[in-house]
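C-alpha cells for chain A. Residues wanted.
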C-alpha cells in the first residue's frame, strides 16, 4: 500500500474501505539472525536500514508495550544540526540530511517542518560562544546566521527583549532546523521495516539475555525464548537495566525529562525558540498547541512522570521569555526517561560479549538523531565496522578517557548534560 494524493482522494470517495494495516502483528519465531530490543524510533529505524541497506530481513524488533510508546512519543519533536564539537557535529549534520529526504524515502508523511530554530543569547560571552558554534556549523556544511537584537525582533517580536535580568541581545538562527511529528516517525519506520520482511513484535518484554562462552545465545521474553546470532540493545532510559541482564554496568544514569503542550491557539510562534539562560524551548504544533520543555528533573528515576519543582521552573522560564503565553492553559504534560552519559554524547558500539551490541546514551536529544542512529547502528550490526558518521561514539572512551565528546563542557556529571 503506497500513499499518494490520488489514493487519498479515491479512498475518501469510497468510504476509506481500501486502506490496509500499516504493519503485520507478527508472532515471534524460534530464531532470528538479529534481535533488536526496543521498538522506539532508534530500534525501528535500525531494523528498516538493516533491511533496506543490507538486505537483512530475518530480523525481529521486540517491544514490551506498543511501538512508539516510549521516548519517541514523549519529546518536544525538535530536529536540528547545531552541534559544535567534532564527533557530534558531523553526525547530526548527517542525520539532518536524512531527515530532509525521509518522507519520500518512507512514502509517509512524518510532518517534517524546517521552520527554523533560534537559540537566543543574553550576554557578550554567550554571543561569542554562539558565533563560534555558528562558524563550526558552517564549516561542517550546515547553515547558521548570527542575528542581532533587531534581527531576532523581526522573527519573534513577542519576546521580552528588555527583561532586566536576561535581556535578549540576539540569537543564532539555524534555518534548516525545525520539528517533525514524533508518532509519525515511529509509524513510518515501522511500516517500512515491515514491508521489507522484519517482524515487529509488540507486548513482548525481554526478561533475560543468555550468554555462553562469551557469546550471546538468545533472549528470554514474556512470549518465550528467542535464539539470535546478534542482539541489539536500543531501549533509551532502560539501557542500564537491560544491559544488566547481560552482566554489564553501563556508564549511564536515567533521568526524567518533562514536556508540556498547551491548548490549541492561533498561529503565533513561527520558529523553534530556545532561551539561552533559562533552558526553555518552545514551538507551535500544526494543531495550534504550544509544545515546550526545559531542564531534566535532576534526579535519577525510572518513573515516566515528573516533579512539581521542574514544572515550576519551566513555567517561570517561559513567562520570563515571553509573557504573552501566561494565559494559555496547559493541556497535558508527560515525562520521558532519558539515559544520560558522562559526556552528554551517545554510544553506538559492540560490547565485549560477542554478538551483543549497544545503542544508548542519547540524553535529551535522541529524537533528532533517529535516522542517522538507525543507519549507523545497522551498518555496525551488518558489517561489524563503525559507520564514519558515528566513529566517535565508542563505549571504551569512558574507560580510557580518549575521545570524550563533552559538547557543553560541563564535565563528567550525568545530570548536567
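Reply:
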Amino acid at each position: 500500500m503506497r500513499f499518494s494524493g490520488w489514493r487519498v482522494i479515491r479512498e475518501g470517495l469510497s468510504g476509506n474501505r481500501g486502506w490496509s494495516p500499516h504493519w503485520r502483528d507478527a508472532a515471534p519465531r524460534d530464531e532470528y539472525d538479529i534481535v533488536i530490543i526496543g521498538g522506539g524510533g532508534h530500534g525501528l529505524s535500525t531494523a528498516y536500514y538493516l533491511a533496506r541497506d543490507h538486505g537483512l530481513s530475518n530480523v525481529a524488533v521486540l517491544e514490551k508495550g506498543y511501538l512508539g510508546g516510549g521516548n519517541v512519543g514523549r519529546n518536544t519533536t525538535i530536529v536540528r544540526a547545531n552541534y559544535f564539537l567534532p564527533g557530534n557535529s558531523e553526525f547530526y549534520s548527517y542525520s539532518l540530511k536524512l531527515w530532509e529526504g525521509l518522507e519520500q524515502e518512507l512514502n509517509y508523511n512524518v510532518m517534517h517542518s524546517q521552520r527554523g530554530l533560534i537559540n537566543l543569547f543574553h550576554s557578550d560571552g554567550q554571543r561569542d560562544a554562539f558565533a563560534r558554534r555558528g562558524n563550526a556549523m558552517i564549516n561542517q556544511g550546515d547553515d547558521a546566521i548570527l542575528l542581532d537584537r533587531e534581527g531576532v525582533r523581526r522573527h519573534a517580536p513577542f519576546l521580552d527583549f528588555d527583561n532586566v535580568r536576561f535581556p535578549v541581545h540576539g540569537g543564532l538562527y539555524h534555518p534548516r532546523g525545525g520539528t517533525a511529528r514524533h508518532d509519525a516517525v515511529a509509524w513510518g519506520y515501522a511500516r517500512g521495516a515491515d514491508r521489507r520482511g522484519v517482524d515487529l513484535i509488540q507486548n513482548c518484554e525481554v526478561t533475560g539475555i543468555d550468554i555462553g562462552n562469551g557469546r550471546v545465545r538468545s533472549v528470554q521474553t514474556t512470549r518465550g525464548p528467542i535464539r539470535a546470532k546478534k542482539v541489539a540493545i536500543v531501549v533509551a532510559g532502560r539501557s542500564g537495566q537491560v544491559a544488566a541482564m547481560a552482566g554489564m554496568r553501563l556508564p549511564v544514569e536515567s533521568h526524567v525529562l518533562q514536556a508540556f503542550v498547551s491548548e490549541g491557539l492561533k498561529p503565533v510562534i513561527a520558529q523553534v525558540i530556545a532561551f539561552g539562560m533559562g533552558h526553555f524551548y518552545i514551538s507551535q504544533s500544526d494543531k495550534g498547541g504550544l509544545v515546550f520543555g526545559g531542564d531534566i528533573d535532576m534526579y535519577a528515576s525510572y518513573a515516566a512522570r515528573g516533579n512539581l519543582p521542574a514544572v515550576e521552573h519551566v513555567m517561570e522560564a517561559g513567562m520570563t521569555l515571553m509573557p504573552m503565553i501566561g494565559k494559555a492553559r496547559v493541556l497535558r504534560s508527560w515525562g520521558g526517561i532519558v539515559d544520560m552519559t558522562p559526556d552528554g554524547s551517545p554510544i553506538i558500539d559492540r560490547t565485549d560479549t560477542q554478538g551483543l551490541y549497544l545503542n544508548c546514551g542519547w540524553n535529551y536529544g535522541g529524537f533528532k538523531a533517529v535516522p542517522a542512529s538507525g543507519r549507523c547502528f545497522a551498518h555496525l550490526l551488518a558489517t561489524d565496522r563503525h559507520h564514519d558518521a558515528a566513529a566517535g561514539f565508542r563505549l571504551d572512551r569512558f574507560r580510557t578517557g580518549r575521545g570524550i565528546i563533552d559538547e557543553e563542557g560541563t564535565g563528567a556529571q550525568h545530570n548536567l548534560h
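The chain has eleven helices and 18 strands. The first helix runs from residue 5 to 13.
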